[in-house]
Amino acid sequence: MSVLEARELVVDIPGRQGGDPLSARILPGQRWGVLGPNGAGKTSLLHTLAGLRPPRSGTVLVDGEPLAVLRRRTLAQTLAVVFQERQDSFPATVLETVLIGRHPFLSPWQREGADDVRLAHQALDALSLSTLKDRLVSTLSGGERQRVAIATALTQQPGIWLADEPTNHLDLHHQVAVMELLHQQAEAGAGVFLCLHDLNLAARWCDHILLLYPDGELCFGPADTMLVPEALERLYDQSLSVFTVNGKPVFVPA
Ligand SMILES: Nc1ncnc2c1ncn2[C@@H]1O[C@H](COP(=O)(O)OP(=O)(O)OP(=O)(O)O)[C@@H](O)[C@H]1O
Question: Which key words are in the record (predicted)?
Answer without folding.
Answer: ATP-binding, Nucleotide-binding, Translocase, Transport
